[in-house]
Amino acid sequence: MSITENVGSVFDRIEAAAKASGRSADEITLIAATKMNSADNIAEAIRGGIKVCGENRVQELLEKNAQNAYRGASLHFIGHLQKNKVKHVVGVCSLIQSVDSLELMSLIDKRAKALGIRQDVLLEINIAGEESKSGMRESELPLFLEKAGAFSSVFIRGLMAIPPISLSKGENRAYFARMYKLFVDNSLKKYDNVSMDFLSMGMSGDFEDAIAEGSNMVRVGSAIFGARPYPPA
Ligand SMILES: *Cc1c(COP(=O)(O)O)cnc(C)c1O
Q1: Is the full-model pTM beyond 0.70?
Q2: Is residue 214 exposed (0-12), middle (13-18) or buried (19+ Cβ within 10 Å)?
Q3: What are phi and psi of 226, to 5 degrees?
Q4: What is the pLDDT of residue 96?
Q5: How far is the CA of 155 from the centre of ligand 1 (A)?
């Protein structure tokens, strides 16, 4: 299967999963996770209908951006963002999906102010409480939302999670359900600079389950581009 065919098939699967839970596929954004893929592969995916790319590493992002790899699509940052790399991402990515510390939020705010823009971000939750993973603990979320008002050039647009790689089907549904509850519960509260619009969860192995549990943004890599030479970082 070509990348073009894979993109079509992922869109079809999103549509079927949305329908199955009584939703419209129009409310679900597909992000092509482009890590370790060449500018040519990315261009093919965009020709095939991809509207948003997600990149994990700043170095790769800069190299591919210099090759105009993302032309025709918008760009999200979905990996762990190091503090000293903030300046390369703010204003370049329309959404930074992986904010998990107040220090990072403050640095993004400073950079956005200097550029005279407002930067959209998601807060990343380590929903399975995995020691090795980035993302804040679920219990830290209220503090972030309360403090958001102090960062006037950052706009929190929702939540993101990367649950454990699911080894068997349905394994992550409980984590997805828990994220959806966090998302909905916090949508009902009023915080400055917060609008709970996006719930980013679901990858190649489990995006249908994520959609069934309320995801409206899925990040799909290998189902579009084929297997990577080694597992996601
Ligand atoms: C690589 C990656 C994905 C996509 O993973 P696949 O299993 O290849 O679909 C999604 N989100 C993040 C943060 C990633 O790093």
Answers
A1: yes
A2: middle
A3: 90, 170
A4: 98
A5: 24
pLDDT band (50, 70, 90) for residue 168: confident
Instruction: Judge whether 55 and 219 are in contact, CB under 8 Å.
Output: no
Compute the distance between CA of residue 89 and CA of residue 61 in angstroms, rounded to an integer: 9
Tokens linked to 40? 């040519």
Instruction: Report whether pLDDT(232) > 60.
Output: no
- Dihedral Cα 119, 31, 180, 227, nearest 10 deg: -130
61 CB less than 6 Å from ligand 1? no
pLDDT digits (tens, 9 = 90+) for 184-221: 999 999 999 999 999 999 999 999 999 999 999 999 99
Residue with CA nearest ligand 1 atom 10: 219
**CATH number of the domain located at residue range(s) 3-225 in this protein:** 3.20.20.10
107 alpha carbon to ligand 1 midpoint, in Å? 25
Which of 219, 220, 228, 230 is the best mutation target for the ligand 1 pocket, counting ligand atoms within 8 Å of the beta carbon and taking the most? 219
| Structure confidence at residue 231 (pLDDT) | 55
**What percentage of the chain has pLDDT greater than the value 70?**
98
Block residue for tokens 């995006």: 207
In ligand 1, the atom with minimum distance to the C-alpha of 220 is: 9
Six-digit token string for 155? 């706009």
Q: How far apart are CA 11 and CA 189, in angstroms?
A: 33
3-state secondary structure of 62: helix
81 lines ligand 1 (CB under 6 A): no
Give the distance, in angstroms, between the CA of residue 130 and the centroid of all CA atoms in the same chain.
18
- Given a contact cutoff of 8 angstroms between Cβ atoms, the answer to whether 82 and 104 are in contact is no
